[in-house]
Specification:
The strands form two sheets. Strands 1, 2, 3, 4, 5, 6, 7, 10 and 11 form a nine-stranded mixed sheet that branches. Strands 8-9 form a two-stranded antiparallel sheet. β8 and β9 form a beta hairpin. The chain contains seven helices and eleven strands. α2 packs across α6. The protein has two domains: 175 residues, Ribonuclease E inhibitor RraA/RraA-like (Glucose Oxidase, domain 1); 42 residues, no CATH class. The radius of gyration is 20 Å and the shape is elongated. With 234 residues, the chain is an alpha/beta fold.
């Protein structure tokens, strides 16, 4: 039952975006703010498979790719920590074209590293979504084992294996199944409303201000120092 539920949630997750999911969560969704996609237009949804590297060593990524299942997203903690000046070996590229090619062959849903990758002319052309802090030409070693399947720290958030992951040009959002059950209906409604409004602006020439339910009242309330919420309706 849990796998069926997860599959249904993933199908629905693919139909929303990070912005709508964050809005639906009331800004409670966990956002990995430190990474960006290698190429624009990337969209990714899948189950988190967590990886903690020994800084400067990519061997654990190989183990994770071997163990992960189709549809998993590798969520890789490369050892960056807030307030600590990053340096080699943390800053090195911890996977490149060969590991990414194998991850794509296995049908993984994506690779997210809170660290650097390398071989970007090739990896940027792959179909598998790849998110990273940046790029670095130095390669790591393959002699030390970290951990897989344990909670990891990515940016300011904790990620656990089994979490559901959504990624696009705006970043990465992580949520539990229970959270998604609560947030997805609102996210779907936000996508539908905004799509309708956008269509009317672009195709019908309607003004955005015509589709706010309380713009003047909201502005007046703000000027009076009163609490108010701006509303939109197609």
């Amino acid at each position: 039952m849990a796998k069926i539920m997860a599959k249904s949630l993933l199908t629905r997750l693919n139909r929303v975006d990070c912005c709508s999911l964050c809005a639906a969560s009331g800004k409670l969704a966990r956002v990995v703010q430190t990474v960006r996609p290698l190429r624009a237009g990337t969209k990714m949804a899948g189950r988190a498979f967590t990886v903690r590297l020994v800084p400067g060593d990519f061997l654990t990524n190989l183990v994770a790719i071997e163990k992960a299942q189709r549809g998993d997203v590798l969520m890789i903690d490369a050892g960056y920590r807030a307030g600590v000046e990053p340096h080699w070996p943390v800053t090195g590229g911890m996977f490149g074209e060969l590991l990414a090619a194998e991850a794509q062959r296995k049908g993984l849903a994506g690779m997210v590293i809170d660290g650097n990758c390398r071989d970007t002319p090739m990896t940027r052309a792959f179909e598998i979504p790849i998110f990273s802090r940046g790029v670095h030409p130095n390669a790591g070693t393959a002699t030390q084992l970290g951990a897989i399947g344990e909670p990891v720290q990515m940016g300011s958030v904790t990620v656990e294996t089994g979490d559901l992951v959504l990624g696009d040009d705006d970043g990465i959002v992580v949520a539990t199944e229970a959270e998604l059950e609560t947030w997805l209906p609102a996210a779907e409604a936000i996508v539908a409303t905004e799509s309708s409004i956008l269509s009317q602006i672009q195709d019908d020439g309607r003004s955005l201000f015509e589709m706010t339910s309380n713009y003047e009242e909201h502005l007046a309330a703000v000027k009076r120092g009163e609490a108010s919420k701006l509303g939109f309706q197609p």
